[in-house]
Design brief:
The chain has eleven helices and two strands. The structure holds zinc ion (ZN) (2 copies).
Length: 245
């Protein structure tokens, strides 16, 4: 039971940070934050994503390529040509790795205004650190698990951030409804947005990637947008455009 509750908590904290910090802040610049607040979010991401920690800069480049080449052969992750989820997961991982190591050359326009903290990532984005996190997870599971089947959550805990990134792209480029004609396969997957807290309105987002609110119809709700409004009121972040909200 404790394992299940911790897994659910890990899921939501991990997805919130991926959407809020990587997607909406680093990749789309919907809002701004001071360098010290940005460094706090780097640390939060490291503590929550642990063994699956990703570089916001590499994520940003991959995501900008995704928007530019959505569902074509130049898209770094699309389920359109291979509908198997694990194929999308592996394609995403390989694209991310090629971008992070700079094996994949990209146009300078995708490299503008990246969110970076190189000194921190020497520790956070390191195989030794990832192995240490896996040992910590293994110890926690061994300590808290009350049945063998609870260890089935362990692989997902280890790859949480990558799994969630591939999951949203796989699901929202295959199933769901559309509000707009976008020329790609993006869909809105409202019935499972309780897992993706506002990022499941993917067709809306592909049509208007600069909009701070993903929910466009009266029956759609974007919880992370409302959390961001709260952070704006608390002066933790600032909307990039004064009338954004
Ligand atoms: Zn997409
Ligand atoms: Zn986006």
């Amino acid at each position: 039971m404790v394992i299940a509750l911790l897994f659910i908590l890990h899921w939501y904290l991990s997805f919130f940070l991926q959407s809020f910090f990587y997607h909406r802040y680093a990749a789309h610049k919907h809002f701004t934050m001071s360098r010290s607040v940005e460094k706090c979010f780097f640390v939060f991401c490291f503590l929550i994503h642990g063994s699956s920690y990703m570089s916001p800069a590499a994520y940003t480049v991959m995501h900008r390529l995704h928007h530019m080449h959505s569902d074509t052969h130049n898209d770094p992750h699309t389920p359109v040509f291979n509908k198997n989820f694990f194929a999308t997961l592996i394609q995403t991982r390989n694209s991310y790795h090629a971008i992070y190591t700079r094996e994949l050359g990209v146009d300078d326009k995708f490299l503008k205004d990246l969110t970076q903290w190189d000194a921190f990532e020497k520790i956070a984005h390191n195989w030794m650190t990832r192995i240490l996190w896996i040992l910590i997870y293994l110890s926690l599971y061994t300590w808290l698990a009350t049945a063998w089947w609870q260890f089935l959550f362990l692989p997902l805990t280890i790859i949480m951030c990558s799994f969630q990134g591939a999951m949203i792209n796989w699901w929202a480029h295959r199933f769901g409804y559309v509000n707009y004609e976008t020329g790609d396969a993006s869909k809105n997957i409202l019935p499972v947005d309780f897992l993706f807290i506002g990022d499941a309105y993917h067709n809306n987002h592909h049509k208007y990637p600069g909009r701070v609110k993903n929910a466009h119809k009266w029956f759609e709700i974007d919880p992370i947008y409302h959390v961001t409004c709260f952070f704006v009121r608390m002066k933790i972040v600032t909307w990039k455009h004064p009338l954004a909200s």
